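input
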Amino acid sequence: MSESKNKIDFKMLDYERVGGDFVAFKLEDGALVKVKVDLDRVGIALNHKNPDGTPHYAINTSVKISIIPNDRKFSVEKNLKDKQAPPPPSQMFS
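output
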């Protein structure tokens, strides 16, 4: 059996978003949860079909979740390191 018979070959498909970028949910405490699903890569099999004869797809997705508190406030740690540029190296002359 040849190695290529053990592999499914795919053609990458372009896609476009239909509808809104995200779904939003308002929680009981007033916070807003936004969920965005993206397609990372989509392909259709060239040498394989599903058992019922329909096309076989490979789809990679990613999910982004954002939570917006009711008071719309957040905190970050202060960076206490001094961000001044270091002095240039001293030069020696002979």
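quick obs: The mean pLDDT is 86.
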